[in-house]
Design brief:
Length: 377
């Protein structure tokens, strides 16, 4: 037997972006909102499987949505973390390079200058003083980068949204229809019971499933390429490296749509390397998140280029995440798709597709944009 519920707004997905959207609507006095997620709690997929870095946009094209939302989002994020006394640290970020990469290094320096990103060029002496375990031919210190506790951040967003919104976990969206100017979202709960939710607005923040859900509703009216999925694994360094790095350490951008293998660390100052970058595919509707221990050699080969006296035995498998990437117009760099779909025949449907890095940094800025789209309609 199906139950039918009426809401003004349905948000699909309780990751960082879905929670940030819910928080924005709560603060704008939307009282009839429900957030759906197929998992048993918020932030169980992409939002909790990353390096928890606050990015500054150095790797994003200056004309991209990713860059625009990252720059605005990091400022909003720092203010939010301060407001609610949540853990973060503005660690800064060091870009390292090999001698053979001098041309790429100069181009990168020119690019971030055009973007207005604050940085300093580091001498060998300065690098040795700050990071004695790092070696680099040319180095830059990016001033506006940091780390934070993504779960505590999402928990705070959830607490704010939960003041007036409903949350339904273990709710798998099985069908969406649009008729009589309303969205009819069919959900299957863990118990097997089936329900239908009727809403004026539908906000698709479903992360890894965002394209599938949008395509099932819009069909040929959604004229964008399929999402591609890339798995990134992380390896921890041994306890002997605890507190050995003061800054985030990144190599120069690669030709792939990847940040490359870099050094980050958590609040315990345990450093990790990652992520690598491998296209993966769904297997019976799920992704394999297991970290292949055999990958340690490729991590070691990359990392020994800039970590002094590193041994392969210092690496151990940690965790992995899957990034949803949307490549528009045959571009080699992925991009966000954030759009209210009236022009495509689905008024008050707001799709957020391909929200990968820097999606976590950008989440509050993205949420503000979605709030404005809702208020306009």
């Amino acid at each position: 037997m199906s139950n039918i519920y009426d809401y003004e707004v349905v948000i699909i997905g309780a990751g960082a972006v879905g929670l940030a959207v819910a928080k924005e609507l709560q603060e704008n006095n939307f009282k009839s909102v429900i957030v759906l997620d197929k998992n048993n709690n918020f932030g169980q997929e992409t939002s909790s499987r990353n390096s928890q870095v606050i990015h500054s946009g150095i790797f994003n094209d200056i004309n991209s949505m990713k860059f625009k939302f990252c720059v605005k989002g990091k400022s909003l994020l720092y203010n939010f973390l301060k407001q609610y006394d949540l853990d973060f640290e503005q660690t800064e970020k060091i870009i390292v390079s090999k001698e053979s990469e001098s041309k790429i290094f100069n181009k990168f320096q020119n690019d971030i200058t055009k973007k207005g990103i604050s940085f300093s060029k580091m001498s060998d002496k300065e690098l040795s003083r700050i990071e004695p375990y790092i070696k680099s031919s040319n180095s830059l210190l990016i001033h506006d980068s940091g780390i934070f506790d993504a779960h505590k951040y999402m928990h705070q967003l959830y607490q704010i949204a939960n003041l007036s919104h409903d949350f339904l976990f273990n709710a798998k969206v099985s069908n969406i229809k649009f008729s009589n100017s309303c969205f009819h979202t069919t959900i299957t709960e863990m118990s097997g019971s089936i329900g239908e939710i009727k809403s004026k607005f539908l906000i698709n923040c479903a992360g890894l499933e965002s394209f599938i859900l949008a395509k099932s509703l819009m069909r040929n009216n959604l004229n964008i390429p399929n999402l591609k999925f890339f798995k990134g694994s992380y390896f921890k360094l041994s306890s002997s490296y605890r507190n050995k790095f003061k800054k985030l350490i990144y190599s120069l951008p690669s030709n792939e749509d990847s940040l490359g293998i870099h050094i980050s660390f958590d609040e315990q100052k345990i450093p990790r390397l990652g992520p690598d970058y491998h296209e993966v595919f769904l297997n019976d509707g799920i992704f394999d998140y297991a970290v292949n221990n055999d990958s340690s050699h490729s991590f070691f080969t990359s990392a020994k280029e800039y970590i002094k006296n590193l041994n392969e035995e210092d690496l151990s498998a940690d965790f992995s995440g899957v990034r949803p990437k949307l490549f528009l117009n045959n571009n080699s760099k992925s991009e966000f798709y954030i759009r209210e779909e009236s022009d495509n025949g689905f008024p008050r449907l707001i799709n957020l597709i391909g929200i990968d890095s820097p999606g976590l940094t950008s989440s509050l800025a993205i949420a503000g944009s979605v709030r404005n789209l809702v208020l306009k309609n």
